Every structure is written in structure tokens, then in C-alpha cells.
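Late entry, evening session. Most of the bench is empty. Finally got around to the prediction I had been postponing all week. Sequence below, unchanged from the version circulated by S.P.
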Amino acid sequence: MEGIMGYDQEIVEKVCDTLVRAGSTFLPDKKKAYEKAIKNETNAQAKWVLETVLENAEVAERNCSPLCDDTGIPHVIVEAGPNAVVTGRVLESIKEGIRKGLKTFREDQWP
């Protein structure tokens, strides 16, 4: 719900973009860890699972869709300095960014 003062669009966009990127992209070190595990895995079934997860990550990144290990429940941690003021407008802008990011995933998955 938008308050009287409206949302801070910069916060909304940053939260939305971060949520979509975090939910659809493996970090490079995570990709390398999977590649290394695949290379070293001797059990065929375990190797197949690792390959499938990595393939899903590549498809998710390419299509900007959720990763298979994404639960769909965003967890947001707001860090503020000792003298910072986190207003209701800031919190509502964060919530709106989350709503917008989740909506982006839904719209991209189901036309």
C-alpha cells in the first residue's frame, strides 16, 4: 500500500533488481564449486543431480527466472548505522521493491 508520501523509486528499483538478480543467478564462486564437484564426482546419479542444478542455474540466469533452489520467500536484512533513521517510507519502499521483483518472476514465468 502506497503511503501519503509515496515510495522512494530509487529504493524500489534497487530492491527489485537485487531480488531478481539474487533469485536467478549463481555467484561465480558457486558455479565454480559446482563445476569442480561435477568434475570430481564418481557416482553417476550424484553427478547427474549436480549437472542438473548447474544447468538450471544457467537457464535461470539466461531467462531471468527463479533458481530451482529459490524458496520464493525473500529474506531482507536492513543494516543501518547508529545515527540512521529508517522511516516508514523507506520500509514501504523496500516492501514495494520486493512485490515488484516477485511480480517480475511471476510475469516472466507465466505469460
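Two things to note before I forget:
The radius of gyration is 18 Å.
Residues 9-109 form one domain.
Will write this up properly tomorrow.
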